[in-house]
Design a protein that fits this description.
With 185 residues, the protein is α/β, with parallel strands linked by helices. It has one domain: P-loop containing nucleotide triphosphate hydrolases (Rossmann fold, 3-Layer(aba) Sandwich), CATH 3.40.50.300. 51% of the residues lie in helices and 12% in strands. The protein contains seven helices and five strands; from the N terminus they run E-H-E-H-H-E-H-H-E-H-E-H. A five-stranded parallel β-sheet has the order 2-3-1-4-5, sandwiched between helices. Helix 3 packs antiparallel against helix 4 and helix 4 crosses helix 6. The radius of gyration is 16 Å and the shape is globular.
Length: 185
C-alpha cells in the first residue's frame, strides 16, 4: 500500500441505489484497513424524507464533499493507503438528473458542474443485483434502474474520470472491486 498524504488513493463507489455500495464499502474498508465515508444523502433522507428539491441536493452534495475531504485528510495523517467514499457530488448530480431531468425547462444547477475534486478511481457498480426496497429507495423498476445506471456511466464519461465497471454477486463483486483498486496503484 502507498504511504503518506500525497499517496492516499481516494476510491469512490458510484452507481444507482441498491447496487451494494454500502455493503461493498464496508467489506473493502475492512480488507484494505481504511476508512469508508458513509452516504450523507441516506442520513438526510432518513431524517427528512425523499421529497427533496435542488437546494436539498446541493446541501447533500456539499456535506458529502466535506465529509470526503475530511476523511482523506485523516487518511493522510495516519499514512493510510486508501480512503473509500460511499458516494460523492457526481452521484448527487445524477440524482438531480434522475429526479428533474425529464421536466420541461430543467437545467442542472451550476454547482454540480463546478465540482472538480474527483476521486482517483470510481467503481461503477452495475445493476446486476436484485433491487432491495429499504423504504428510502425510489427507482425500483428495471427501466428506471437502467436509466439511472446509464446516467451514472455518462456522468463519469463526461467528466473523463478513471472508472471500472464492477459486476457480479457476493464474493465475485468484492474480488472485482478489490482487484480494480489494487491495479490502480
Amino acid at each position: 500500500m502507498a504511504q503518506g498524504g500525497a499517496d492516499v488513493k481516494r476510491i469512490c463507489l458510484h452507481g444507482p441505489e441498491s447496487t451494494g455500495k454500502s455493503t461493498l464499502g464496508a467489506l473493502l474498508a475492512a480488507d484494505l484497513e481504511c476508512e469508508v465515508v458513509p452516504e450523507y444523502g441516506r442520513t438526510y433522507c432518513a431524517a427528512h424524507g425523499t421529497d427533496i428539491g435542488t437546494n436539498e441536493l446541493i446541501h447533500i452534495a456539499q456535506t458529502q464533499d466535506a465529509m470526503n475531504r475530511a476523511a482523506a485528510e485523516r487518511a493522510a495523517e495516519v499514512g493510510a493507503g486508501f480512503v473509500l467514499f460511499d458516494t460523492d457530488p457526481l452521484i448527487t448530480a445524477v440524482w438531480a438528473d434522475m429526479m428533474f431531468g425529464t421536466m420541461q425547462g430543467y437545467c442542472r444547477d451550476a454547482y454540480f458542474d463546478s465540482f472538480t475534486d474527483f476521486a482517483d478511481l470510481y467503481l461503477l457498480l452495475d445493476i446486476d443485483l436484485p433491487f432491495v426496497d429499504d423504504g428510502l429507495r425510489v427507482y425500483a423498476q428495471p427501466a428506471e434502474r437502467q436509466r439511472f445506471f446509464d446516467l451514472c456511466a455518462a456522468e463519469l464519461d463526461r467528466r473523463s474520470v478513471r472508472y471500472v465497471r464492477i459486476q457480479g454477486l457476493g464474493e465475485a463483486r468484492f474480488a472485482a472491486a478489490k482487484a480494480a483498486i489494487l491495479e490502480s496503484e
